[in-house]
């Protein structure tokens, strides 16, 4: 029922959109969402709608579609229409879309690429040379640029022409380069629009306070994470990107930074829970289920390791069944305290709030908090165990093992992500499983071991 | 050692900054970070540096400081210097800073507020009337605005003057209002700079394609989350904010949206792990430790509930100690599978990818994945248990309870956040504890109950 209502609603919106009959603007993301609803119930209708999209809309929508739907698009839409759609996109988006198509059908992607304008092919080739983590992979090559000696009015006339030809949009700053294409100045449009247009850029800069137009830039081989930090620190709307020789090669705009921040956050949250963000986005039961099962297998393995530890003490448990009742508490508290530490460390590493320079003070802080909480919960749980089973030494045993396990939780909760980061592995991936292995094993071993030694020793 | 090196490095940077002697620009966020390093080791030196900051820097830095450091600033810095710093800030930041000061010292905040210009007081009063979740709370009142009948050149002359007086910065768009202050058009500077300045705005708009300058806006009582969605969907650099009568009252810029996205993500990640983001930011052991202890108390309570369930079956365990060895595996697998579902649901709710309209299909999807994985792990774990303890029926018991617990994990992993959201409670807060209570109780009860019935029955 809900599905049917969804379909009807989406159908209406898409049809109004196609007839240019909507009261409100519809963003590509929203249009893609409605098209996905239609695809779920009626693939033919979906294709029919996609065929009616303008080149511009088709490109914008295509980059929003997950692989299994994009697959239908590239099979059913003519190569000419796809080529036009790609050419309407900015170079970074065009590169991404071609990459997505290549992941589905390499041959088709090559054909499409070959059909593009030479200049466009050059841009895409250049962008594809960058690694996924590099700033260059996220930039677009379309920039509003002027020469130092040029007159402001000439640059504005050029901007007007570029805009009329649909070559460029979302301009917030003009970048000024010298004869070697080296980036020299970065001038916000708000300063340009209030300036005397008959001046050269050189004259404009000389009239301004020193360093006023000194550009804040990124290198194309900087990590995208460091670019995000720069954008956030300086509240930028756009960052120019330069190559190793200082030449302006592109720009990254704030809306791309938004998307990366959101994606990074989703990836972190998912990875901490043993979920793969890309598999989830595929939106098919099989992909999501398979990737989750792989994590659960890893977890099963570590749970069995913990059980082996319990197995060592089976006779102790048979003699004292209260131990079986209480042992999950120690493991659970360790797991939770460790997850707190782990999560804070992973997130603060990602935000740049902690690094290797202050790793030691992070560890000291985390172990201190865990130690203090360990003592508190040792006293609380010791008292509860005593009142529950009327056995003072049982309280001592659970109290001691609580302190030991929470200290380990704090230590490894901080150490695991810091070590992974040092090894250049994403500290969010797999760290939760590693941590709970430690807290389960230490929790069971310390509790049952102390019990054997103190209660039965 | 690391601390000392940190201090030295920060001292050098701050001193070069104060002498205007830095090669590179230093953002307020970075300056605040170095000042925090100094504060950690030497409060007097910290105050000494802060006193030397310009009003502009002082304001920018002050909003970046955590409460316990800001406290020292407001105690040691003269009210005049603080007033100047607040007046240098944009209205939204000024409001935030005053709020932070009020949290520390209400009287001081009132004194500072009273010392501000009347116009400034009005703006702050208006912004403070908004709820934390409302768009209005995040807007600044400084906007570049023009009347429909005005000439473009007149508006640009006004912008020039406002910029010279330091009243406004980061202008990306001009907002055009009618005689009732109603927002009519939103014109990017890139279009303005390439236009004929002798035209009126009315003439400019009439020459453009229909709807070209139709504003995408937010209402001041919209939720900030919906504003974030709008900004992302339309790749905006700035959103105008209107009141219930359609009058332009302020704007929200992309850099503020960045900060909110990051903060929301941090809050979600932390809340899922039982960590309070505000307490962690305080950066004092006591605050962070206290807030974490409160979550651990809640977890202790639920762990005890799970133990009570185990306690019901103490005789069964004594008869079959293998049950004690195996039972944590069932609980652990349920907890992990449930956390996967919970995390995906929480995050997709936050990103607007799922809502109540498609809640049912989310639940169906999650239960299906959990069910399939339940069957897989039932077979795997059943076989392992059989091989380990040479008891076929033990394999059947753990297999059945695995299916039951994973189904519950999928069901409650989706239901808990959806229900919390429906009740207008943040679905990330407390949901993990609720979920693991379910998976622990169901895990232990189904496994031990089935064992009692099948093995001993």
TrEMBL record, chains A, B:
Domain called CBS: residue spans: 210-267
UniProt-listed Pfam families: CBS, MgtE, MgtE_N
Positions in coiled-coil regions: none
Domain of life: Bacteria
Primary location class: membrane
Membrane topology: Multi-pass membrane protein
Subcellular location(s) of the protein: Cell membrane; Membrane
Gene3D superfamilies in alphabetical order: CBS-domain (3.10.580.10), MgtE N-terminal domain-like (1.25.60.10), SLC41 divalent cation transporters, integral membrane domain (1.10.357.20)
Annotated keywords: CBS domain, Cell membrane, Magnesium, Membrane, Metal-binding, Transmembrane, Transmembrane helix, Transport
Residues annotated as transmembrane: 293-313, 319-346, 367-389, 395-420, 432-455
InterPro entries linked: CBS_dom, CBS_dom_sf, Mg_transptr_MgtE_intracell_dom, MgtE_N_sf, MgtE_transporter, SLC41_membr_dom, SLC41_membr_dom_sf
Keyword Cytoplasm: no
Quaternary structure annotation from Swiss-Prot or TrEMBL: Homodimer.
Family membership noted in the UniProt record: Belongs to the SLC41A transporter family.
Entry-linked PANTHER family: MAGNESIUM TRANSPORTER MGTE
Functional summary from the UniProt entry: Acts as a magnesium transporter.
Protein name: Magnesium transporter MgtE
